Amino acid sequence: MSEIFEQMNYGLNVQGIVETDDCKVMRLNDSSGDGTMTLYQVFPGVFLMYNDFHMKQCVSGFQTDMDLLCIDHCREGRIEQEAGAGAYSYLEAGDLRVDQRIHHNGKVTFPLCHYHGISIGFQMSVAAKEIPDHMKDFSVDLYELQKKYCSDPKPFVIPGEPAIEHIFSELYNVPLKIKKDYFKIKVLELLLYLDALELSGHTEERPYFYKGQVEKI
């Protein structure tokens, strides 16, 4: 398994279940339920993870010193998490989030008691070199993409874009025989889409709520 997985601390409530050369399955246990995370290496420095949680809340102990670019897509359910300074961000069905995993530890809430989605992560120093090596003349600069979407420390959320839904819908039903190659194609397709996307006019700012507001709601 790639070193990228070994350099991430998922917390004491996460245990490994099974591991192969290119896949790792982990389980998160909490008093309100449990969840599984199934990670695949796509390219060196690039992973794709299926997230399936059936719980009301948990505490994330995730920590890493790596420079990351992470993309999350919510297929079903809803997730809420503190985004710094007492503000909370949320992700619901159809949304896509881009961040650097700066605010990814602490209390996580699932208001609908379930969450299903995909996370794609890039270890910048490795992925920025390996992707062009595997795909000659690939035009997307990962560092420029990171700058485009992560200039603000809060996560960048793109709600309900049909093109994004199309890209991810095909990732939820991939035949095992073609999974490894298909992941590569879809990751490159997503990078091209995010690189070409004009932020003004195609996205809307997702508000952040403060703890008092969330508790009142």
The CATH topology comes to Jelly Rolls
Given helix and strand content, the structural type is alpha+beta
Cα distance spanning the termini: 43 Å
The global form is globular
Instruction: Report the CATH superfamily.
Output: Jelly Rolls
Please tally the helical runs, counting DSSP H or I stretches of 4 or more residues: 6
The number of distinct β-strands equals 12
- The CATH class is identified as Mainly Beta
Question: What Rg do the Cα atoms give?
Answer: 17 Å
Estimate the mean pLDDT confidence.
86
Order of helices and strands: HEEEEEEEEEEHHEHHEH
Structure description:
With 217 residues, the chain is of the alpha+beta class. The chain has helices at residues 3-6, 124-134, 142-149, 162-169, 179-196, 211-216; strands at residues 14-19, 23-30, 33-43, 46-54, 57-60, 68-82, 87-92, 96-99, 106-109, 115-123, 156-158, 209-210. Strands 1, 2, 3, 4, 5, 6, 7, 8, 9, 10, 11 and 12 form a twelve-stranded antiparallel sheet that branches. A hairpin with a 2-residue loop joins strand 2 (23-30) and strand 3 (33-43). The termini are far apart.
